[in-house]
């Protein structure tokens, strides 16, 4: 009995595109802004909140890192050498820690968003992503 696995070709196509774009994003963000892709995501998620801050647990859920990995990443971004984030202890619950994006972090984010958009446009302009997704769904 043979099973049709055509859906895998479409899935692997999407995965390949995403990996290629992520690699390029990582290289450009690191070279031009000294940011990893995960650090960029931290800045982005913080910038989207009304008061520009999140509890580390909330950020951990969004970024997809372990608690210790996120703590290290945020700690490095809070360090004087980077200055993109600042730590705040929760006044209601002393065990809770917030991190907030600083003006430096906001400037890095805004500049890097321009490069991010350019890279996406470059890599995705020749690809019919909607058609690939449509084909994948049809094969499932």
From TrEMBL:
Pfam families with a match to the protein in the record: MarR_2
UniProt feature coiled coil, ranges: none
Record-annotated HTH marR-type domain positions: 28-132
Organism: Metabacillus rhizolycopersici
Ranges that cross the membrane: none
Keyword Protein transport listed: no
Keyword set, alphabetical order: DNA-binding
Record keyword Metal-binding present: no
Designated name of the protein: MarR family winged helix-turn-helix transcriptional regulator
